[in-house]
Amino acid sequence: MSSKYNQPGVPGGPDASGSRSPATHKRRKRRRMVRRLLRLTTAFLVLCLILAGAAYGYILYRGSQIHHITVSHLVKPAPSGVENILMIGNNSRCALNGKQSTAFGSCSQVGGARSDVTMLLHLDPAKHTASILSIPRDLFLPIPGTANENRIDDSLNPTHPNQLSNPSQLVDTIESDLGIPINHFVMLNFDTFQNVVDVLGGVNMYFPNPVKDAYSGLNITAAGCHHLNGTQALALVRARHMYYYQNGSWQYDPTGDIGRITRDHQFLRVLAAAVARQGLSNPLKDNALVGSVLPSLTVDQGFGLQQMASLALTYHGINAYDVPTNTLPVINHYYSGYQGYIYRGGNYGDILMPYQPTDQQAIDAFLGRSDPPGSSVSPQSVKVAVLNGTGTSGQASTTSSQLQGIGYNIVGTGSSAPVANFSETVVYYKSGEISAAQSVMSHLSGVVTMGQGPTADGSDVTVVTGSKFSVTGTLPASGSTSSTTGTQSNTTSSSAPSAPSGSGPSHNYNPVPGLSSNYSLIQSSHAIPSYDPRACPAGARLTPG
Fold this sequence. Notes:
With 545 residues, this protein is α+β, with helices and mostly antiparallel strands. The chain folds into two domains: 67-329 and 524-545, LCP protein (Aminopeptidase, 3-Layer(aba) Sandwich), CATH 3.40.630.190; 366-501, no CATH class. The protein is 29% helix and 23% strand. It is built from eleven helices and 29 strands. The chain has helices at residues 22-65, 98-104, 167-178, 190-199, 230-237, 256-278, 283-293, 305-315, 358-367, 395-406, 434-441; strands at 67-69, 83-90, 115-124, 129-134, 140-142, 149-151, 184-188, 203-207, 211-213, 218-220, 224-228, 243-246, 249-252, 298-300, 325-327, 330-333, 342-343, 346-347, 352-353, 383-388, 409-415, 425-429, 444-446, 448-452, 461-464, 469-471, 506-511, 519-525, 534-535. The strands form eight sheets. A seven-stranded mixed sheet has the order 1-14-7-2-3-4-15, sandwiched between helices. A five-stranded mixed sheet has the order 21-20-25-22-24. A four-stranded antiparallel sheet has the order 10-9-12-13. A hairpin with a 2-residue loop joins strand 17 and strand 18 (346-347). Helix 4 packs antiparallel against helix 7.
């Protein structure tokens, strides 16, 4: 039977001559195009699903390469998205391969773990800014959970036989003693650092002078722009016993670890610029970079690949040379001969000590605080005990009287066995009372720190007096004082140098009021030493050797 649409004269059918009308051809062609588009769309969607599945699988694969560990004491990031990431370089030899063990020593030869490099990265998404604060490895601070003080890098040392390192204790030390909240933890070792530099094909740095360091292996024999591979770059960032050639002879760089921090900041800028030039635009290079880092990367349990990728996308446009870098101000003491710092009968070698109010001002600037911590605490609400920690006659009673004059509730005085010939004043606080400790410490200047630890006479805060400090009647941010006390001199915080104002990578060594010339306050400055390496000038040619 014939369809009615095949009958002549019917719309859509043939005309009287038996041919179909032009309108019919157009409609049939349109239907064929729709069917073809549907097939192509379906194929495209299937392809997208396959690709998405592959990408998801790749993310899972890369995410599985990251070594996650449980880190205690981390703070949940603020709703604003502001984060503080603790980044350390672990000098543990237990993770090295055979070739590296030959160069740096094996796990049996060099035991334990230390945070050779300790940097804090502050990220603010609203301002789209990043900044770095370095903490010197030899800074002497109370170690939470112990009755002693030690270098901060030693707080990474394992406390149990089954541990390779103890990041929880390091995080706790920074938060308890410096009042800096830590949201995430990232740890790299020698191998990871070398791999990143090598995957980039090396980096170029300018050396104004020949330099060498027998301990790290650094050996630049001629001034100029040099291409560094991973091994050479590691030798540079580890150099803290460096010599530089100037005026016809080799000169020793006395800055030690402080000088190394300067060089590390410069190198990070050069490295970040190299990553920016080659990464995030070259998939093969990106994949190689990711593959060189993730297998050796150790991060906290809550820091996943998705969060890392989000941070990379948020901040990848920042110019590395615009990122402020600073170092926590410290007191340095040059010991004569081989005599080191004797603490509780043990020799701790050369150490560094905190200094107030410059430390707190540097921390507040780094965190973007407008009000000093503890400023909202009423002194009358804080129960304070004061213990004489030096044996100097009347030190506890004088200090307690001055704190009471400010308004603090003094609940007791007494004595504590001296720990060293020159000691820090420590503001100990019981759990949950860090704001009270910060309030008390805001009225102290000099060699002063705080830490969570035992308190006396039912107090919230116990001040164990040290060798060089003063009590101020007003907040030290103004630089004024109303009353002072000390064991070596009655200097006030008005004579203390101001906090570092810039983000420069170098340091000034300033005399410490009331102390001998053996002591100096080390603060960041803008100009780097003339002999220190830096980025190669534009268009510079590489120097052989």
